Automatic annotation (TrEMBL):
Residue list for modification N6-(pyridoxal phosphate)lysine: 225
Listed HAMAP family: Kynureninase
PANTHER family in UniProt: KYNURENINASE
Enzyme nomenclature, EC number: 3.7.1.3
Keyword Nucleus: no
Gene Ontology biological process: anthranilate metabolic process; L-kynurenine catabolic process; L-tryptophan catabolic process to kynurenine; NAD+ biosynthetic process; quinolinate biosynthetic process
Amino-acid positions noted as binding pyridoxal 5'-phosphate in the UniProt annotation, renumbered to this chain: 97-98, 127-130, 170, 199, 202, 224, 254, 280
Role: Catalyzes the cleavage of L-kynurenine (L-Kyn) and L-3-hydroxykynurenine (L-3OHKyn) into anthranilic acid (AA) and 3-hydroxyanthranilic acid (3-OHAA), respectively.
Gene (UniProt): kynU
Catalytic reactions on record: 3-hydroxy-L-kynurenine + H2O = 3-hydroxyanthranilate + L-alanine + H(+); L-kynurenine + H2O = anthranilate + L-alanine + H(+)
Annotated protein name in UniProt: Kynureninase
Family statement: Belongs to the DegT/DnrJ/EryC1 family. Belongs to the kynureninase family.
Molecular-function annotations in GO: kynureninase activity; pyridoxal phosphate binding
Listed Pfam families: DegT_DnrJ_EryC1, KYNU_C
Length: 412
């Protein structure tokens, strides 16, 4: 049996533990939802004041140059690059994940247009916006393009064939925490002549990534989850240098122009990753992304991953030890290589149980159907947090202290 003092001993030995100090977490809260909205780096408040009061307030429009606002998508992209195995000049922080995926898919279809391939293969269990963006693009093009949905990772083996233009997958599933084998699946796509587009929304800042070694062709990801960029902070897109010259998408805004201030009437794409940009960025929100990246700069993704697996292993073990007589079903893979940084359990009253947990300060979230989702963020989650969260879960389940008639908010 694992005791609370075992967990405290692990915290005392944890080299990442001091980083928790750099986040502002309310007292009495165990925050297991950093996979949906990362916690606030303390530095974000100072940085926001600087951007708003000084750069915007005092320096006004000169800040596009003097405060580096114009260069920020590329500068932050270069800072994010090492976390995903990208090189400098291959990433920009910009727009939303949905919009970046649209650009990446459009560019991938364009690169395949001479082949006559018309199919985008993805999973039915993918995060819906990813499927919607693919459906929107293909139906709008109205040239016979199709989106093919598979029901399991195994089905990819037969679904990918000579008609496949693009394999578009989310590396870690938002609901189950299942992690694809990026290298093997990219290789499968290439073997059939398809391109591999990866969504890293639940991977960036959660698991080590090596986009070049793993054969990805394009990738997008989110900064407001594990990267702690703040609510709705701009997303990122990766275009490897080898694909940049042929990176062509229909959102040809002036920020992707070779010489935006020439104000020329014709679009001419800039060289390099800049052509993934579209228009003016939300500078105040973009600036916050750096505060999250500053924390990652103090550790390594290997250290983050080691602690992440220890936290998720511990959570699974404690739930199974302490709540054995409750109808909980583990949907997250036990195998380390197939697991992201979250653990999901089903319960017939999952929504009500999650509401009871949140009311007692254990913040996770709920996803249909019946899934209670717990995200583990090594930068600010302790082993004792895990023990305490399971203790509260056990009490709620033992006492049936949840309201099965609880009304649902707009965001679950
Ligand atoms: C969180 C998430 C998104 C979010 O997209 P937005 O455009 O930022 O709303 C997209 N895809 C996946 C897989 C996600 O997990």
């Amino acid at each position: 049996m694992i005791s609370r003092s075992d967990c405290l001993a692990r915290d005392a030995a944890d080299t990442l533990a001091p980083l928790r100090e750099q986040f502002d977490l309310p007292a009495g809260v165990i925050y297991l939802d950093g996979n949906s909205l990362g916690a606030r780096p303390k530095a974000a408040l100072t940085r926001a004041t600087e951007v708003i009061a000084k750069e915007w307030g005092k320096d006004l429009i000169t800040s596009w140059n003097s405060a580096g606002w114009f260069e920020m998508p590329k500068r932050l992209g270069d800072r994010l690059a090492p976390l995903v195995g990208a090189k400098p000049g291959e990433v920009v922080v910009t727009d939303t994940t949905s919009i970046n995926l649209f650009k990446a898919l459009a560019a991938a279809l364009h690169a395949q247009s001479h082949t006559g391939r018309k199919v985008i293969v993805t999973e039915r269990s993918n995060f819906p916006t990813d499927i919607y963006m693919a459906q929107g693009l293909t139906s709008w093009l109205d040239r016979g393009y199709q989106v093919k949905l598979v029901d399991s990772p195994e089905q990819l083996q037969t679904a990918i064939n000579a008609d496949t233009a693009v394999v578009m997958l989310t590396h870690v599933n938002y609901r189950t925490g299942y992690q694809h084998d990026m290298a093997a699946t990219s290789a499968l796509a290439h073997q059939h002549g398809a391109l591999a587009v990866w969504d890293l929304a639940h991977s960036a800042g959660a698991v080590p990534l090596d986009l070049h070694a793993d054969g990805a062709d394009f990738a997008v990801g989110c900064t407001y989850k594990y990267l702690n960029g703040g609510p709705g902070s701009p997303a990122f897109i990766w275009v490897p240098e080898r694909n940049q010259d042929k990176f062509s998408h229909p959102l040809s805004g002036w920020w992707g122009h070779a010489n935006p201030f020439a104000m020329a009437p014709d679009f001419a794409p800039t060289k390099g990753i800049g052509r993934a940009l579209c228009g003016t960025q939300p500078v105040t929100s973009l600036a916050m992304v750096e505060c999250g990246l500053d924390v990652f700069a103090q550790t390594s993704m290997q250290a983050v991953r080691t602690k992440s697996l220890a936290l998720t292993d511990l959570f699974i073990a404690l739930v199974e030890q302490r709540c054995p007589n409750h109808p909980l079903g583990l949907v997250t893979p036990r195998e380390h290589a197939r697991r992201g940084s979250q653990v999901s359990f089903t319960h017939p009253y999952g929504y009500a149980v999650m509401q009871a947990l949140i009311a007692r300060g254990v913040i996770g979230d709920y996803r249909e159907p019946e899934i209670m989702r717990f995200g583990f963020t090594p930068l600010y989650t302790s082993f004792a947090d895990v023990w305490d969260a399971v203790e509260i879960l056990k009490q709620i389940l033992d006492d049936k202290a949840y309201d099965i008639t609880a009304a649902r908010g707009a965001v679950t």
